[in-house]
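Researcher: We plan to redesign the surface later, but first we want a full-length starting point. Tokens attached.
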């Protein structure tokens, strides 16, 4: 069998215009693992309410962060893919869960190079039904329907792998150099609390308050909240940061149901009011910078923190196309390619 790799990230609209953002958001928000309500209600909510105003608002936000070459998330993912390729002698393709750079195109590219055994790599460190799981489900559907000859293995979530924590800590350590901070905030993309309950295979382990996280459970394999706190703690220890100078929060919530707390915007206020006025923010739910980091955290977050009394603020970039990150991904791929059988999800 000929082996190859399909890296998959979230995706972006083709242009930062309401016309291009609308179909992208439609595909994204109509995903039953993102807005997980019955399809009739989802239709009403997404098409009847959210898409009436959101495309214009989102397009404005995209315009603030858009690069000459295109969407930062897409360009960074492409640069990363090129760097990973350089370490390997097998085909590596890039696809997106939503938008025009589809997973299907990625499989097709691999097929044309004779690949019939694929390592699927969701580019998310943590498991969530709205990120990692939807990539795997979609890829398996596409493979079953159109590439049935392909064997597909999947890279598990890597939020606590020692080698990943080392690279992440190194990158954060570099970002902190020369910046006088009195607090480091780990801000992860939020999800509705309901998603945590739905993803708990025991149906009773996850309490969504941390009281469950030190009790061994199969639920931790699919608990986004557990995994985010684990990443924070591992990086904190690797960088030798005092516990009182570090906290975790969740950003980017939509109105409606309760989302994971504490909310990042409330944390900005709390920290500034407590006199922690020099803040470093990192966003480890994303491997590449995107709208949610460049606009919501680096721009809006800075304003919110300063309005609340903050004095200095720094968003530390995601791993993006760092050499050590590309080399690590290539190592994981080499490890997969040399095994007869591969532990997968
Ligand atoms: C119900 C809504 C959403 C859930 C659940 C959700 C989970 C989730 N998302 C990411 C990663 C990204 N999300 C991005 C943008 C984005 N996310 C939502 C909504 C949910 N996300 C919306 C509506 C948007 C679009 C932008 C906007 O209108 O505000 C992005 C950035 C994409 C880009 O083009 O730059 C990323 C990346 C994760 C990891 C996740 C669950 C853990
Ligand atoms: Fe999102
Ligand atoms: Fe837990």
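Model: Full-length starting sequence:
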């Amino acid at each position: 069998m000929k082996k190859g790799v399909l890296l998959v990230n979230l995706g972006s609209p083709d242009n930062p215009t309401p016309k291009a953002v609308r179909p992208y958001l439609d595909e994204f928000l109509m995903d039953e693992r993102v807005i997980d309500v019955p399809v009739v209600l989802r239709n009403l909510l997404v098409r009847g309410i959210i898409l009436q105003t959101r495309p214009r608002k989102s397009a404005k936000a995209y315009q603030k962060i858009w690069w000459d070459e295109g969407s930062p998330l897409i360009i960074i993912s492409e640069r990363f893919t090129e760097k990973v390729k350089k370490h390997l002698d097998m085909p590596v393709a890039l696809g997106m869960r939503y938008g025009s750079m589809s997973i299907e195109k990625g499989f097709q590219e691999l097929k044309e190079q004779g690949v019939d055994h694929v390592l699927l790599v969701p580019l998310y460190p943590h498991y969530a039904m709205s990120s990692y799981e939807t990539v795997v489900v979609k890829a398996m559907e596409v493979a079953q329907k159109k590439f049935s000859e392909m064997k597909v293995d999947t890279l598990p979530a890597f939020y606590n792998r020692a080698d990943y924590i080392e690279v992440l800590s190194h990158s954060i350590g570099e970002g902190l150099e020369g910046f006088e901070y009195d607090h480091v905030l780990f801000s992860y993309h939020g999800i509705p609390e309901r998603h945590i309950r739905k993803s708990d295979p025991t149906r009773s382990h996850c309490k969504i308050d941390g009281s469950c996280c030190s009790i061994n459970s199969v639920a931790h394999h699919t608990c986004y909240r557990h995994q985010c706190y684990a990443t924070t703690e591992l990086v904190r220890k690797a960088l030798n940061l005092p516990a009182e100078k570090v906290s975790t929060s969740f950003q980017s919530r939509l109105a409606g149901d309760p989302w994971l707390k504490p909310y990042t915007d409330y944390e900005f206020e709390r920290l500034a009011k407590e006199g922690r006025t020099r803040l470093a923010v990192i966003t480890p739910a994303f491997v590449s910078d995107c709208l949610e980091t460049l606009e919501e955290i680096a721009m809006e977050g800075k304003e919110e923190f300063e309005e609340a009394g903050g004095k200095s603020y720094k968003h530390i970039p995601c791993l993006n196309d760092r050499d050590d990150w590309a080399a690590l991904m290539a190592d994981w791929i080499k490890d997969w390619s040399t095994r007869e059988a591969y532990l997968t999800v």
